[in-house]
Specification:
This protein is α+β, with helices and mostly antiparallel strands. It contains 3 helices and 10 strands.
């Protein structure tokens, strides 16, 4: 053992390893404490900015503040006739089957945001499903669903502006057999 430690090369290697290990430990502890300091500064800045409503750090965008619009109450009854004098509202419908309960969700994709009423056809007249519902213009506007075992349903959506009905989509007939043939999701244009 004494022979090994008399060799200068061994001493240099052992010293380099000790210094390298010590330096690595010192560097990691300094960067860890710097990260903790930076994190606490960011948390403080974020909480201050959140209370002010905006974030000013580079790379951070202000949080989207949901705008809650209270729909104007509908001042008239929804039309129940097939023919109306309302304008045309461009839309498509996506029907998607839920494999767990066999229902088919019906979602309208409308040309604009706003307030809408959805209806389904019963015989020769229209029955309101949901009235005065807000739609942001993103995602689908729910127009109900096709119950398990129900073969088809005809639906439409009416647009409401300033408490009056102004436009209507064409009527869409969602058929269970078509949705199932399309492997559980079908779009109607």
């Amino acid at each position: 053992m004494k022979k090994i430690f008399k060799n200068k090369v061994v001493w240099i290697l052992v010293g380099a390893l000790v210094i390298g290990f010590g330096g690595t430990v010192a560097y990691l502890s300094m960067t860890d404490s710097q990260k903790k300091s930076d994190q606490s500064k960011q948390d403080t800045t974020k909480s201050n900015n959140d209370s002010a409503g905006t974030q000013t750090e580079k790379g951070n965008l202000p949080a989207d503040q949901p705008v809650v619009k209270t729909p104007v109450p509908v001042q008239e009854k929804a039309p129940t006739d097939t023919s109306t004098s309302l304008g045309s509202l461009i839309s498509s419908v996506t029907a998607q089957k839920n494999p767990s309960d066999d229902t088919i969700a019906i979602l309208f994709y409308l040309e604009s945001s706003g307030t809408f009423t959805s209806q389904e056809k019963s015989g020769t007249s229209w029955v309101t499903i949901s009235e005065n519902q807000s739609y942001s213009g993103r995602g689908g506007f729910s127009a109900g669903s096709l119950a398990a075992g129900q073969a088809s349903k005809t639906v439409r959506v009416l647009k409401i502006e300033n408490g009056k009905y102004t436009a209507v989509t064409k009527e869409f007939t969602v058929t269970r057999s078509e949705v199932e043939a399309a492997l559980g999701i079908k779009t109607y244009n």
